[in-house]
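Figure 2 data, in text form.
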Amino acid sequence: MNNPQPISIQQPCTEMTILVTPEMANFSGRMHGGELLKMLDKVAYTCASRYCGEYVVTISVDKVTFKQPIFMGELLTFLASVNYTGKSSLEVGIKVIAEDIKKRTVRHSNTSYFTMVAIDENGKKFEVPQLELITEVQKERFHQAENRRLKRLTKD
């Protein structure tokens, strides 16, 4: 019998795919915005908790841009990345790609930024591993996330 072995999965990226089904759509055959927000929150949770190895909660959603409608029957791919890490918080950026399976076309339909906080089993904030910035894209995302964080803090 195989015993599960512990592994280290400190990956800053997660990809998830779902099919838009009738219960997710409104009467015009478009995906409800609330359904999309629910999926985005699940993706942000998955990416953040997978990265830091702890339970995380959503603290804020800085931005959700609905660029184009999403239709019933389309395949959605969520491309999530940890863009920024603080002491116990991290920002997850999510790009949504909608694929029309019949027409074999894809388009960028949504972008969003979620701030998550890691908490331990007692509900106390937990220190997250610091993001290792290797590529220029990672460095630029970190810088942009840092700017969003500063704007958010000055508004409060």
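Caption note: The CA atoms of residues 54 and 118 lie 6 Å apart.
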